[in-house]
Amino acid sequence: MSVSAHPPSLIASAFLSFRDDIDDHNDRRERLIKCSRDITIASKKVVFLLHRIMTDSGADDRTLSLHAASEGQKALRNVQMLFMKITPEVEGDRFWRYQHNISPGLQEYIEALSFAHYLEHGTLITYNEVQKSLSDESGSPYFPLPMSDYILGLSDLTGELMRFAISSISKRGGRTKASEVSVFVRGCKADFEGLTPHIRDLSKKQAVTSQSLRKIEEAAYAIAVRSSEFDLSPEMLDDVVGQAISGYGENFDDMHTSGRRRPTSDEHEFE
Predict the structure, then answer these.
(1) Which of 10, 101, 209, 237 is least surrounded, with the fewest CB atoms within 10 Å of its CB?
(2) How many Cβ atoms sit within 10 Å of the Cβ of residue 146?
(3) Which residue segment(s) compose the domain that 191 sits in?
(4) 167-196 per-position pLDDT tens digit
């Protein structure tokens, strides 16, 4: 009997199976990376939407906050649909194999969601509330929410709160709002500090949180000094405040992005 008449060896069959598994893994990983990037872009747009609504001077602060939170939640539904679409890709234990591929988008989503929640309630969104937002109508989660991504997403929120405080501090009642945000950010920093040895990259984000807190405090200090020097009407004081804090909002994007670890090929891979 000729050699060609023999069926493929068991070793060759095994390697063909390995090839198919590796090809399937690489294809799935690329799909998840692309989806994570789409989620990141969509979540950033939600954050910009919230800031844009909050800078409107045509309504009182509480009305603007509720309107911004409502519009933000509507926009976040589109992001949640993207998470729902990847559910078949990360079923069961496969989620933990590909967690690093979707982690950047997940953290950005948590940042946007927590910002909308803060504007509405003035509190930090809970782990269970985030997990519920990533569940279907019956309450079944699309995937288990990693605690590390939850904490890192909340840490990113402090930078947005700094921007929110600086942009609103010159508005009527904005100085009180800035003081409230300062206390809130300081509390977040203190609470997260004990977790830094256990969560990768949290120490870097804590450094950015410290910078954000310092910017809020410096702006509030400048305003307190100015207001004590002159006996000004509230309207004139608002003008002085606007001039005093104009420099604190500059270079925010550079400072804010410096604490974010941009996805790399090593980060996306989980062999």
Answers:
(1) 10
(2) 17
(3) 21-268
(4) 887 776 677 888 899 999 999 999 999 999
